[in-house]
Fold this protein.
Amino acid sequence: MGIVNVTPDSFSDGGLYLPKQRAVEHAKNLIAEGADILDIGGESTRPGSRQVSADEELRRVMPVLQALTDTDIPISVDTSKPEVMRCAIEAGAFMINDVNALRSPGALDVVALHGDVQVCLMHMQGTPQNMQANPSYRDAVAEVMDFLRQRIDEANAAGIASDRLVIDPGFGFGKTLPHNLALLNRLDEFITLGVPILAGLSRKSMLGAITGNDIDRRLHESVAAALLAVVKGAKIVRVHDVKATKAALAVYTAMINGNV
Ligand code: HH2
């Protein structure tokens, strides 16, 4: 899953793809590099980020989504707002990627009403505004799993079948480095929840905390983290650097298959 951030303030590429034409160009580059899904987002969820209105988010996301409907790549829209979800689905989005796991009032209903759209339910402790202030868990892996199990149950109860769901532990969303590392190391335990796992580790500060590298120099760490996530059971990895990630995953796939 290649990331297309149509925002002025995303943590690694804020402002780069805010003009529509640049976002579309970037999206087409990611497709050429081998992305299987694109994830378009119009609101940064970095720690301390400013929330934007639904209107502003729609102004950013919809023209890019509409410009990409002639490509046949599945498009995910990264949003927590029911109004943005509805417009995105009606414009042909294949997935809603919700860092708030459909907890916003009305979100479950919008997705339930549109029977073929997929949805990613992500775990976050707190909100982007306060999540890194003091993340705390008794047992991060158990608590994140419990949360996702409950969100799967809520989605099912609202009429969203499990074959439409993807789960994500939410690396960096209300977690310290040890929490993030435990989640990565034990990602395979999430397989027991019975729906595919998505992992987003690309360029995140947990990687910088390990190597000391700045955001724009975390390619190697990001590729390693994506590969580890896949080895531990992730079916989708959300990345900025598609080409390098695809190359690493090709080596893994060849090893598993015993051939190319
Ligand atoms: N991470 C970010 C945004 N959306 N969605 C899922 N499912 N999983 C993630 O880990 C995830 C996500 C943050 O990364 P990015 O989009 O690059 O930055 P920003 O939120 O600042 O736009």
Q: What stands out?
A: The chain has a mean pLDDT of 97. The beta strands are 2-5, 38-41, 75-78, 95-98, 118-122, 165-168, 198-199, 236-237.
